[in-house]
Amino acid sequence: MIRAPLLHTLAVALTASLCAWPLVSGPAAAQTQAGFDETSLADLEGGRWGISLIALDGTPLIRVNADKRFVPGSTLKLVTTASAFHYLGDYGNAGWPQGTALYRQQSASAPYPDLILVGSGDATLSSGEGCEENCLDTLVEAARTAGLTDIHDIQVDDSLFEPPTWPDGWSHEDLRFGYGSAISALSIDDAIAKATIEPGPAIGAAPALTWLSPIPYPLDVSQAETVASGFELELHKQPAAPGGQVFGTIGRTLSPVLLELGLDDPSLQAGRVFRDSLARHGIRVHGEVTRRPAPTEAPVSGFTPQLISRLAPPDPRETLRDILYDSNNFHAETLLHHVSLVMGDKTEEAGLDLMTHLLLESGTPETQFNLVDGSGLSFYNRVSPDTLSNLLVWASQQPWFEEWSSLLAASGQNGTLEHRLASRSFRGVLRAKSGTVFGADALAGYFTAESGQTVAFSVIINDSALSHAAARAEIDAFLKQMIRAL
After folding, report:
1. Tell me: the pLDDT tens digits for 314-323?
2. Which CATH architecture fits 18-93+316-485?
Protein backbone atom coordinates (compact mmCIF):
# COMPACT_ATOMS: atom_id res chain seq x y z
CA MET A 1 0.00 0.00 0.00
CA ILE A 2 1.06 3.61 -0.56
CA ARG A 3 0.40 5.59 2.58
CA ALA A 4 0.55 9.32 3.10
CA PRO A 5 3.77 9.80 5.10
CA LEU A 6 4.09 11.60 8.39
CA LEU A 7 6.02 14.83 8.06
CA HIS A 8 9.09 15.14 10.24
CA THR A 9 11.09 18.30 10.89
CA LEU A 10 14.86 17.99 11.05
CA ALA A 11 15.75 19.19 14.51
CA VAL A 12 18.81 21.16 15.47
CA ALA A 13 21.60 19.43 17.36
CA LEU A 14 20.91 18.85 21.00
CA THR A 15 23.11 20.87 23.30
CA ALA A 16 22.64 18.97 26.55
CA SER A 17 24.89 15.97 27.18
CA LEU A 18 23.93 12.62 28.62
CA CYS A 19 27.30 12.68 30.37
CA ALA A 20 25.84 15.25 32.75
CA TRP A 21 23.27 12.79 34.08
CA PRO A 22 24.11 11.56 37.60
CA LEU A 23 24.50 7.84 38.33
CA VAL A 24 22.87 5.69 40.98
CA SER A 25 24.09 2.16 41.64
CA GLY A 26 23.92 -0.72 44.06
CA PRO A 27 21.06 -1.42 46.50
CA ALA A 28 18.33 0.62 44.84
CA ALA A 29 18.94 -1.21 41.57
CA ALA A 30 18.85 -4.61 43.24
CA GLN A 31 15.61 -3.81 45.03
CA THR A 32 13.99 -2.70 41.78
CA GLN A 33 14.96 -5.94 40.08
CA ALA A 34 13.64 -8.02 42.97
CA GLY A 35 10.33 -6.16 43.03
CA PHE A 36 9.59 -6.30 39.32
CA ASP A 37 6.73 -8.60 38.33
CA GLU A 38 7.06 -9.84 34.77
CA THR A 39 3.39 -10.82 34.73
CA SER A 40 2.49 -7.12 34.87
CA LEU A 41 3.64 -6.69 31.28
CA ALA A 42 0.91 -6.14 28.71
CA ASP A 43 -0.36 -9.06 26.66
CA LEU A 44 1.14 -8.84 23.17
CA GLU A 45 -1.39 -11.12 21.46
CA GLY A 46 1.06 -13.84 20.57
CA GLY A 47 4.17 -11.69 20.65
CA ARG A 48 7.02 -11.61 23.15
CA TRP A 49 8.77 -8.97 25.19
CA GLY A 50 12.52 -8.46 25.25
CA ILE A 51 13.70 -6.07 27.95
CA SER A 52 17.11 -5.08 29.23
CA LEU A 53 17.59 -2.15 31.62
CA ILE A 54 21.11 -1.58 32.95
CA ALA A 55 22.52 1.20 35.12
CA LEU A 56 25.55 2.94 33.62
CA ASP A 57 27.78 1.30 36.21
CA GLY A 58 26.81 -2.05 34.68
CA THR A 59 24.26 -3.12 37.30
CA PRO A 60 21.34 -5.05 35.74
CA LEU A 61 17.96 -3.58 36.68
CA ILE A 62 15.21 -5.29 34.67
CA ARG A 63 15.69 -8.30 32.39
CA VAL A 64 13.00 -10.14 30.42
CA ASN A 65 14.26 -12.48 27.69
CA ALA A 66 17.30 -10.23 27.77
CA ASP A 67 19.67 -12.81 26.29
CA LYS A 68 17.25 -14.04 23.60
CA ARG A 69 17.54 -13.05 19.94
CA PHE A 70 15.05 -10.56 18.44
CA VAL A 71 14.59 -8.66 15.19
CA PRO A 72 15.83 -5.17 16.17
CA GLY A 73 14.69 -2.97 13.29
CA SER A 74 16.42 0.38 13.10
CA THR A 75 17.76 0.23 16.66
CA LEU A 76 20.66 -1.52 14.89
CA LYS A 77 21.69 1.95 13.69
CA LEU A 78 23.04 2.48 17.21
CA VAL A 79 25.67 -0.17 16.49
CA THR A 80 26.51 1.28 13.07
CA THR A 81 26.96 4.85 14.27
CA ALA A 82 28.88 3.81 17.40
CA SER A 83 31.19 1.78 15.15
CA ALA A 84 31.74 4.82 12.94
CA PHE A 85 32.79 6.93 15.91
CA HIS A 86 35.00 4.15 17.24
CA TYR A 87 36.77 3.19 14.00
CA LEU A 88 36.71 6.38 11.90
CA GLY A 89 37.89 8.67 14.68
CA ASP A 90 37.52 12.44 14.76
CA TYR A 91 35.44 14.13 12.09
CA GLY A 92 38.57 15.53 10.46
CA ASN A 93 39.90 12.08 9.62
CA ALA A 94 39.76 10.96 6.01
CA GLY A 95 37.79 7.85 6.94
CA TRP A 96 34.59 9.90 7.01
CA PRO A 97 32.93 10.63 3.63
CA GLN A 98 34.79 13.05 1.38
CA GLY A 99 33.43 15.39 -1.26
CA THR A 100 32.20 14.36 -4.71
CA ALA A 101 34.79 15.09 -7.42
CA LEU A 102 34.60 16.13 -11.08
CA TYR A 103 37.25 15.16 -13.65
CA ARG A 104 37.67 15.82 -17.35
CA GLN A 105 39.23 13.38 -19.81
CA GLN A 106 39.84 13.76 -23.51
CA SER A 107 38.83 10.75 -25.55
CA ALA A 108 40.89 9.74 -28.56
CA SER A 109 37.75 8.98 -30.55
CA ALA A 110 35.60 12.03 -29.71
CA PRO A 111 35.96 15.73 -30.50
CA TYR A 112 34.86 16.73 -27.02
CA PRO A 113 36.08 15.69 -23.56
CA ASP A 114 34.20 13.44 -21.18
CA LEU A 115 33.27 14.57 -17.70
CA ILE A 116 33.67 12.04 -14.89
CA LEU A 117 31.58 12.35 -11.73
CA VAL A 118 33.37 10.46 -8.95
CA GLY A 119 31.50 9.34 -5.85
CA SER A 120 33.19 9.41 -2.45
CA GLY A 121 30.37 7.88 -0.44
CA ASP A 122 28.84 11.28 0.29
CA ALA A 123 25.13 10.63 0.69
CA THR A 124 24.29 14.36 0.99
CA LEU A 125 24.97 15.62 -2.58
CA SER A 126 21.97 17.74 -3.57
CA SER A 127 20.42 19.21 -6.70
CA GLY A 128 17.70 21.04 -4.79
CA GLU A 129 16.86 24.71 -5.13
CA GLY A 130 18.37 26.77 -2.35
CA CYS A 131 21.14 24.20 -1.78
CA GLU A 132 23.94 25.68 0.35
CA GLU A 133 26.35 22.77 0.89
CA ASN A 134 27.36 19.72 -1.18
CA CYS A 135 25.57 21.17 -4.20
CA LEU A 136 25.67 19.70 -7.69
CA ASP A 137 25.52 23.20 -9.17
CA THR A 138 28.91 23.93 -7.60
CA LEU A 139 30.40 21.28 -9.88
CA VAL A 140 28.45 22.67 -12.86
CA GLU A 141 29.87 26.12 -12.19
CA ALA A 142 33.37 24.62 -11.96
CA ALA A 143 32.89 23.11 -15.43
CA ARG A 144 31.85 26.49 -16.80
CA THR A 145 34.81 28.20 -15.14
CA ALA A 146 37.08 25.63 -16.80
CA GLY A 147 35.80 26.89 -20.16
CA LEU A 148 33.83 23.79 -21.11
CA THR A 149 30.99 24.32 -23.56
CA ASP A 150 30.60 20.90 -25.20
CA ILE A 151 30.91 17.47 -23.58
CA HIS A 152 30.94 14.02 -25.14
CA ASP A 153 29.89 11.54 -22.38
CA ILE A 154 29.11 11.88 -18.70
CA GLN A 155 30.81 9.01 -16.88
CA VAL A 156 29.85 8.07 -13.33
CA ASP A 157 32.42 6.43 -11.08
CA ASP A 158 30.96 4.62 -8.07
CA SER A 159 33.92 2.27 -7.67
CA LEU A 160 34.66 3.28 -4.08
CA PHE A 161 32.02 0.71 -3.09
CA GLU A 162 31.06 -2.50 -4.82
CA PRO A 163 28.47 -2.00 -7.63
CA PRO A 164 24.94 -0.89 -6.59
CA THR A 165 23.34 -3.59 -4.52
CA TRP A 166 21.10 -4.31 -1.58
CA PRO A 167 22.05 -6.08 1.66
CA ASP A 168 20.80 -9.61 2.26
CA GLY A 169 17.29 -9.92 3.63
CA TRP A 170 15.83 -6.72 2.20
CA SER A 171 12.32 -7.55 1.01
CA HIS A 172 11.29 -6.91 -2.59
CA GLU A 173 8.44 -4.91 -1.06
CA ASP A 174 11.00 -2.59 0.58
CA LEU A 175 12.88 -2.06 -2.69
CA ARG A 176 9.92 -0.22 -4.20
CA PHE A 177 10.17 2.72 -1.84
CA GLY A 178 12.75 5.36 -1.00
CA TYR A 179 14.00 3.64 2.13
CA GLY A 180 15.01 0.62 0.02
CA SER A 181 17.26 2.26 -2.60
CA ALA A 182 20.33 0.36 -3.78
CA ILE A 183 23.58 1.32 -2.07
CA SER A 184 26.12 3.28 -4.09
CA ALA A 185 29.19 5.47 -3.50
CA LEU A 186 27.67 8.09 -5.82
CA SER A 187 24.17 9.38 -5.27
CA ILE A 188 22.11 12.54 -5.26
CA ASP A 189 19.06 13.76 -3.37
CA ASP A 190 19.14 10.88 -0.85
CA ALA A 191 19.06 8.32 -3.69
CA ILE A 192 15.30 8.57 -4.14
CA ALA A 193 12.88 9.77 -6.81
CA LYS A 194 10.00 11.88 -5.51
CA ALA A 195 6.56 12.53 -6.94
CA THR A 196 3.09 13.44 -5.77
CA ILE A 197 0.01 11.52 -6.83
CA GLU A 198 -3.45 13.08 -6.60
CA PRO A 199 -6.97 12.46 -7.84
CA GLY A 200 -7.73 12.99 -11.52
CA PRO A 201 -10.11 15.71 -12.76
CA ALA A 202 -13.18 13.44 -12.62
CA ILE A 203 -14.42 10.12 -11.29
CA GLY A 204 -13.04 7.36 -13.47
CA ALA A 205 -10.03 9.39 -14.56
CA ALA A 206 -6.47 8.25 -13.89
CA PRO A 207 -4.67 9.99 -11.03
CA ALA A 208 -2.32 12.87 -11.78
CA LEU A 209 1.38 12.27 -11.20
CA THR A 210 3.71 15.24 -10.62
CA TRP A 211 7.45 14.60 -10.41
CA LEU A 212 9.45 16.52 -7.84
CA SER A 213 12.74 14.90 -8.84
CA PRO A 214 14.82 16.37 -11.70
CA ILE A 215 14.79 13.02 -13.52
CA PRO A 216 11.46 11.18 -13.30
CA TYR A 217 11.19 7.43 -12.89
CA PRO A 218 8.98 5.76 -15.55
CA LEU A 219 5.73 5.13 -13.70
CA ASP A 220 2.42 4.21 -15.34
CA VAL A 221 -0.70 5.38 -13.50
CA SER A 222 -3.18 4.56 -16.28
CA GLN A 223 -4.40 1.43 -14.45
CA ALA A 224 -5.48 3.44 -11.38
CA GLU A 225 -8.64 5.53 -11.21
CA THR A 226 -10.28 8.33 -9.28
CA VAL A 227 -13.32 7.34 -7.18
CA ALA A 228 -15.71 9.10 -4.83
CA SER A 229 -13.79 8.29 -1.65
CA GLY A 230 -11.11 6.08 -0.14
CA PHE A 231 -7.48 5.34 -0.86
CA GLU A 232 -6.38 1.92 -2.11
CA LEU A 233 -3.35 2.39 -4.34
CA GLU A 234 -0.72 -0.27 -4.91
CA LEU A 235 2.74 0.34 -6.36
CA HIS A 236 4.25 -2.45 -8.46
CA LYS A 237 7.99 -2.06 -9.05
CA GLN A 238 10.60 -4.76 -9.46
CA PRO A 239 14.38 -4.29 -9.07
CA ALA A 240 16.14 -3.52 -12.35
CA ALA A 241 12.79 -3.17 -14.17
CA PRO A 242 12.59 -0.23 -16.61
CA GLY A 243 9.58 1.22 -14.81
CA GLY A 244 6.65 0.59 -12.51
CA GLN A 245 2.86 0.73 -12.34
CA VAL A 246 0.28 2.07 -9.92
CA PHE A 247 -3.01 0.20 -9.51
CA GLY A 248 -6.11 0.87 -7.41
CA THR A 249 -8.25 3.83 -6.47
CA ILE A 250 -7.90 7.29 -4.95
CA GLY A 251 -10.73 9.45 -3.57
CA ARG A 252 -11.45 12.62 -5.51
CA THR A 253 -11.29 14.85 -2.40
CA LEU A 254 -7.89 13.68 -1.18
CA SER A 255 -4.87 15.96 -1.09
CA PRO A 256 -1.72 15.03 -3.03
CA VAL A 257 0.21 12.12 -1.51
CA LEU A 258 4.00 12.12 -1.50
CA LEU A 259 5.51 9.09 -3.22
CA GLU A 260 9.19 8.24 -2.74
CA LEU A 261 10.64 5.55 -5.00
CA GLY A 262 13.82 3.59 -4.40
CA LEU A 263 16.49 3.76 -7.10
CA ASP A 264 18.08 0.66 -8.59
CA ASP A 265 21.18 2.62 -9.62
CA PRO A 266 21.71 5.91 -7.73
CA SER A 267 24.96 6.67 -9.59
CA LEU A 268 23.32 6.72 -13.02
CA GLN A 269 20.56 8.92 -11.62
CA ALA A 270 23.23 11.33 -10.34
CA GLY A 271 24.84 11.39 -13.79
CA ARG A 272 21.53 12.11 -15.51
CA VAL A 273 20.69 14.92 -13.10
CA PHE A 274 24.19 16.33 -13.68
CA ARG A 275 23.73 16.15 -17.47
CA ASP A 276 20.46 18.07 -17.28
CA SER A 277 21.96 20.68 -14.98
CA LEU A 278 24.85 21.19 -17.40
CA ALA A 279 22.35 21.73 -20.22
CA ARG A 280 20.43 24.32 -18.21
CA HIS A 281 23.69 26.22 -17.72
CA GLY A 282 24.59 26.21 -21.42
CA ILE A 283 26.93 23.18 -21.56
CA ARG A 284 25.85 20.73 -24.23
CA VAL A 285 26.28 16.97 -23.71
CA HIS A 286 26.46 15.16 -27.05
CA GLY A 287 26.83 11.59 -25.72
CA GLU A 288 25.39 9.39 -23.01
CA VAL A 289 25.54 8.87 -19.26
CA THR A 290 27.60 5.72 -18.67
CA ARG A 291 29.29 3.93 -15.78
CA ARG A 292 33.06 4.19 -15.74
CA PRO A 293 34.48 0.67 -15.63
CA ALA A 294 37.75 1.50 -13.88
CA PRO A 295 38.94 3.84 -11.12
CA THR A 296 39.56 7.43 -12.18
CA GLU A 297 43.22 7.29 -11.21
CA ALA A 298 43.97 4.75 -13.97
CA PRO A 299 44.72 6.21 -17.45
CA VAL A 300 42.24 5.26 -20.18
CA SER A 301 43.39 5.08 -23.82
CA GLY A 302 46.51 7.00 -22.87
CA PHE A 303 44.61 10.04 -21.56
CA THR A 304 44.85 10.75 -17.84
CA PRO A 305 41.80 12.37 -16.16
CA GLN A 306 42.36 15.89 -14.84
CA LEU A 307 40.67 17.11 -11.68
CA ILE A 308 38.38 20.08 -12.24
CA SER A 309 36.86 20.40 -8.77
CA ARG A 310 36.18 18.48 -5.58
CA LEU A 311 33.48 19.45 -3.13
CA ALA A 312 34.42 19.96 0.50
CA PRO A 313 33.85 16.95 2.78
CA PRO A 314 30.26 16.89 4.08
CA ASP A 315 29.65 17.54 7.76
CA PRO A 316 29.37 14.07 9.35
CA ARG A 317 26.90 15.47 11.88
CA GLU A 318 24.33 15.92 9.12
CA THR A 319 24.66 12.30 8.05
CA LEU A 320 24.51 11.10 11.64
CA ARG A 321 21.38 13.15 12.30
CA ASP A 322 19.77 11.69 9.19
CA ILE A 323 20.55 8.23 10.59
CA LEU A 324 19.71 8.71 14.27
CA TYR A 325 16.97 11.37 14.07
CA ASP A 326 15.21 10.36 10.86
CA SER A 327 16.33 6.72 10.50
CA ASN A 328 17.67 7.12 6.95
CA ASN A 329 18.64 3.64 5.74
CA PHE A 330 20.69 4.77 2.74
CA HIS A 331 22.89 6.99 4.89
CA ALA A 332 23.35 4.17 7.41
CA GLU A 333 24.45 1.72 4.73
CA THR A 334 26.89 4.16 3.13
CA LEU A 335 28.36 4.83 6.58
CA LEU A 336 28.80 1.08 7.08
CA HIS A 337 30.80 0.95 3.84
CA HIS A 338 33.10 3.68 5.16
CA VAL A 339 33.71 1.54 8.24
CA SER A 340 34.58 -1.32 5.87
CA LEU A 341 37.08 0.88 4.05
CA VAL A 342 39.11 1.07 7.27
CA MET A 343 40.03 -2.53 6.39
CA GLY A 344 40.42 -1.78 2.67
CA ASP A 345 37.23 -3.67 1.82
CA LYS A 346 34.74 -2.17 -0.68
CA THR A 347 31.86 -4.39 0.47
CA GLU A 348 29.94 -4.19 3.73
CA GLU A 349 31.50 -7.41 5.06
CA ALA A 350 34.50 -5.86 6.82
CA GLY A 351 32.25 -3.25 8.41
CA LEU A 352 29.97 -5.97 9.74
CA ASP A 353 33.02 -7.77 11.14
CA LEU A 354 34.13 -4.60 12.91
CA MET A 355 30.61 -4.06 14.27
CA THR A 356 30.71 -7.62 15.58
CA HIS A 357 34.06 -6.95 17.26
CA LEU A 358 32.60 -3.82 18.85
CA LEU A 359 29.69 -5.77 20.35
CA LEU A 360 32.03 -8.44 21.67
CA GLU A 361 34.18 -5.72 23.23
CA SER A 362 31.09 -4.25 24.90
CA GLY A 363 30.45 -7.57 26.65
CA THR A 364 27.86 -9.49 24.60
CA PRO A 365 28.64 -13.07 23.47
CA GLU A 366 28.41 -13.68 19.74
CA THR A 367 25.63 -16.21 20.25
CA GLN A 368 23.28 -13.32 21.09
CA PHE A 369 23.41 -11.44 17.78
CA ASN A 370 23.70 -11.75 14.02
CA LEU A 371 24.42 -8.70 11.87
CA VAL A 372 23.53 -8.50 8.18
CA ASP A 373 23.27 -4.78 7.37
CA GLY A 374 23.91 -1.38 8.90
CA SER A 375 20.37 -0.01 8.84
CA GLY A 376 18.29 -2.76 10.47
CA LEU A 377 16.00 -3.14 7.47
CA SER A 378 17.06 -6.75 6.86
CA PHE A 379 14.84 -9.31 8.53
CA TYR A 380 17.93 -11.50 8.96
CA ASN A 381 19.34 -9.26 11.71
CA ARG A 382 19.06 -10.60 15.25
CA VAL A 383 20.14 -9.04 18.54
CA SER A 384 19.31 -9.68 22.15
CA PRO A 385 18.10 -6.78 24.28
CA ASP A 386 21.32 -7.14 26.30
CA THR A 387 23.30 -6.63 23.09
CA LEU A 388 22.01 -3.08 22.75
CA SER A 389 22.02 -2.24 26.45
CA ASN A 390 25.59 -3.49 26.86
CA LEU A 391 26.62 -1.37 23.90
CA LEU A 392 24.92 1.68 25.42
CA VAL A 393 26.70 1.20 28.75
CA TRP A 394 30.05 0.64 27.00
CA ALA A 395 29.51 3.72 24.81
CA SER A 396 28.96 5.89 27.90
CA GLN A 397 32.61 5.22 28.81
CA GLN A 398 34.05 6.25 25.43
CA PRO A 399 35.62 9.63 24.63
CA TRP A 400 33.12 10.21 21.80
CA PHE A 401 30.06 9.54 23.97
CA GLU A 402 28.99 13.15 24.45
CA GLU A 403 28.94 13.87 20.72
CA TRP A 404 27.25 10.57 19.80
CA SER A 405 24.58 10.66 22.49
CA SER A 406 23.67 14.27 21.69
CA LEU A 407 22.63 13.08 18.22
CA LEU A 408 19.96 10.71 19.55
CA ALA A 409 16.35 11.81 19.19
CA ALA A 410 14.75 13.16 22.37
CA SER A 411 11.31 12.13 23.59
CA GLY A 412 8.59 14.60 22.68
CA GLN A 413 11.05 16.88 20.90
CA ASN A 414 12.52 15.69 17.62
CA GLY A 415 13.21 12.95 15.11
CA THR A 416 11.24 9.72 15.29
CA LEU A 417 10.46 10.44 18.96
CA GLU A 418 8.84 13.81 18.36
CA HIS A 419 5.38 12.46 19.21
CA ARG A 420 6.37 9.81 21.74
CA LEU A 421 6.42 10.39 25.51
CA ALA A 422 5.56 13.96 24.61
CA SER A 423 3.82 15.05 27.83
CA ARG A 424 5.61 17.61 29.97
CA SER A 425 6.64 14.99 32.53
CA PHE A 426 8.55 12.90 30.00
CA ARG A 427 9.62 15.41 27.36
CA GLY A 428 13.38 15.22 26.88
CA VAL A 429 14.02 12.67 29.64
CA LEU A 430 14.60 9.89 27.13
CA ARG A 431 16.99 9.80 24.19
CA ALA A 432 16.88 6.80 21.98
CA LYS A 433 16.65 5.15 18.57
CA SER A 434 13.40 3.58 17.48
CA GLY A 435 13.02 0.54 15.25
CA THR A 436 10.06 -0.71 13.19
CA VAL A 437 9.95 -3.48 10.59
CA PHE A 438 7.33 -6.11 9.87
CA GLY A 439 6.65 -8.00 13.10
CA ALA A 440 9.04 -5.92 15.20
CA ASP A 441 8.92 -2.72 17.26
CA ALA A 442 11.83 -1.56 19.38
CA LEU A 443 13.29 1.36 21.27
CA ALA A 444 16.79 1.58 22.76
CA GLY A 445 18.73 4.38 24.39
CA TYR A 446 18.93 6.20 27.70
CA PHE A 447 16.46 7.72 30.13
CA THR A 448 16.72 9.75 33.31
CA ALA A 449 14.58 8.23 36.05
CA GLU A 450 12.76 10.45 38.55
CA SER A 451 15.43 9.51 41.10
CA GLY A 452 18.07 11.04 38.85
CA GLN A 453 19.51 7.70 37.84
CA THR A 454 20.60 7.23 34.22
CA VAL A 455 19.52 3.95 32.67
CA ALA A 456 20.58 2.30 29.41
CA PHE A 457 17.62 0.40 28.03
CA SER A 458 16.51 -1.81 25.18
CA VAL A 459 12.88 -2.81 24.77
CA ILE A 460 11.87 -5.00 21.81
CA ILE A 461 8.53 -6.51 20.83
CA ASN A 462 8.50 -9.26 18.20
CA ASP A 463 5.76 -11.28 16.53
CA SER A 464 2.85 -9.44 18.11
CA ALA A 465 -0.57 -9.29 16.50
CA LEU A 466 -0.79 -5.68 17.71
CA SER A 467 -0.50 -2.87 15.21
CA HIS A 468 2.77 -0.95 15.18
CA ALA A 469 1.03 1.99 16.86
CA ALA A 470 -0.34 -0.24 19.62
CA ALA A 471 3.01 -1.97 20.16
CA ARG A 472 4.81 1.36 20.42
CA ALA A 473 2.20 2.53 22.92
CA GLU A 474 2.92 -0.53 25.10
CA ILE A 475 6.67 0.14 24.96
CA ASP A 476 6.10 3.76 25.94
CA ALA A 477 3.77 2.80 28.79
CA PHE A 478 6.36 0.41 30.18
CA LEU A 479 9.11 3.03 29.98
CA LYS A 480 6.95 5.63 31.71
CA GLN A 481 6.47 3.16 34.54
CA MET A 482 10.23 2.55 34.76
CA ILE A 483 11.05 6.28 34.68
CA ARG A 484 8.79 6.76 37.68
CA ALA A 485 9.89 3.62 39.54
CA LEU A 486 13.68 3.64 39.28
Report:
1. 999 999 999 9
2. 3-Layer(aba) Sandwich (3.40)
